[in-house]
Write a structure and sequence with these properties.
- The chain is an alpha/beta fold.
- The protein is 32% helix and 31% strand.
- Strands 2-1-3-4-5 form a 5-stranded parallel sheet, with helices on both faces. It has a 5-stranded antiparallel sheet with strand order 10-9-8-12-11.
- Strand 1, helix 1 and strand 2 form a beta-alpha-beta unit.
- Helix 3 packs across helix 6.
- The longest helix has 16 residues.
- The N and C termini lie far apart (60 Å).
- 33% of the residues are buried.
Amino acid sequence: MPIRYLIVDDEEPGRANLRLALADHSGWELVAECDGNGAARASLAQHEVDVIFLDVQMPGETGLVLARELSRLCEPPLIVFVTAYGAHAVDAFEVHALDYLLKPLDDARLAQAVERAAAMLRQRQREAYGAALRDHAEAGASPYPERIGVRSVGRIEQVIVDEILWMEAAGNYVELHLPARTVLHRITLNRLEALLDPACFLRVHRGAIVRRDQIASLVSGGEGSHKLMLRCGGVVPVSASYMAALKAALHA
């Protein structure tokens, strides 16, 4: 079965660029091009759609309005957000494992989004995707996410932020340390830190963030190095540049 997709963008050149780029991907079938949410709703009422390429910035109703509506469905179509938004908005997409394309379009990034969507459809992950989309749609009520959507081989797993004990950088990934296991999430530590509640989490090293209520004691090592002992048994390095904030937390 072909993957049926919808393009929603108020600008005709944007729709044309995406249509032409997707023509290179076999097995993808264009259902309709829509210049706004109204036309998209009409198309969705008439056709079954697997994936929507949705422009975020549109006059009147933004693409996020339509995404919020679709998030209430049990098994919504997958959405690839198309945006020129800045880094913070992109961070919000990544923390919930939602895919996005930045304008102007990059062919390699589009190919990655296409493969991710196809993998999720093969794994029948629409229900899990719906939960991730709802988390993103409802995030406006709180500046900090309650859950993190972790994508792995076409699947999405929801990780509750309150269960994260500490985090470590691992290249372009972050290791989320939970009570019984460690989960690898594709996002940088800097980008994830921008979305975390500073009242709950503290940066103690360029490669580590800890939950404040896990801070137990500070141990000195050789040559001026320090390590932080966590209540859960974890041991985390501490950088001198974060020492003052850590000492304040220890004496709070």
